[in-house]
Amino acid sequence: xxxxxxxxxxxxxxxxxxxxxxxxxxxxxxxxxxxxxxxxxxxxxxxxxxxxxxxxxxxxxxxxxxxxxxxxxxxxxxxxxxxxxxxxxxxxxxxxxxxxxxxxxxxxxxxxxxxxxxxxxxxxxxxxxxxxxxxxxxxxxxxxxxxxxxxxxxxxxxxxxxxxxxxxxxxxxxxxxxxxxxxxxxxxxxxxxxxxxxxxxxxxxxxxxxxxxxxxxxxxxxxxxxxxxxxxxxxxx
Length: 237
Description:
CATH superfamily of the largest domain: Leucyl/phenylalanyl-tRNA-protein transferase, C-terminal domain
Order of helices and strands: EEHEEEHEHHEEEHEHEHE
Strand order of the largest sheet: 11-5-10-9-8-7-6-12
Number of helices: 7
Number of domains: 2
Largest sheet: 8 strands, mixed
CATH architecture of the largest domain: 3-Layer(aba) Sandwich
Distance between the termini: 52 Å
CATH class of the largest domain: Alpha Beta
CATH topology of the largest domain: Aminopeptidase
Structural class: alpha+beta
Helix content: 25-40%
Low-confidence stretches: none
């Protein structure tokens, strides 16, 4: 099957309308361009994100359905409560963003490679340094054992990836993230494409049109100046 994709120019930050995204594969919108902070922010502000495999061109997506955690849906279940009661985890914000994205880039057991290639890592580290990308870390005895990262667009958190080296610590990071977001925003977390893990945690599918409305309502809202300073956070049990 031949697929025609618009090729982005490095001289312009403009994307095609998301209504032009393909239905097969779902959401594929364009190729090319670059991973500059300006282009990445433009993409997120319009419901678009990069995703490609090693050796592929730079691909941009806006799927017909988004996986969304609505406010308050991420809760500590019995298993997580028991784990927290019997462990001495420390949970932090923005303490080790580069380490989190490197850990997220490690191939899963079911994968042969990773889309979080060095160019992607550096692009999001730059966004972090500019105050747009953030991480939540879970530590055990000083060792990073779980976490997640993403991009803040106004008051909507666009999650990118997560990891754990101890069972359930990625879930703990997500719960901590939503609790933190709820202290200054509604607490919505966009996780892009649905998968069984996200569905198990309570993510809901949102149509592209509904998602774009949600995005429009959040992207111009400001965050308090110090909300993403490096800090410890405590989970409400």
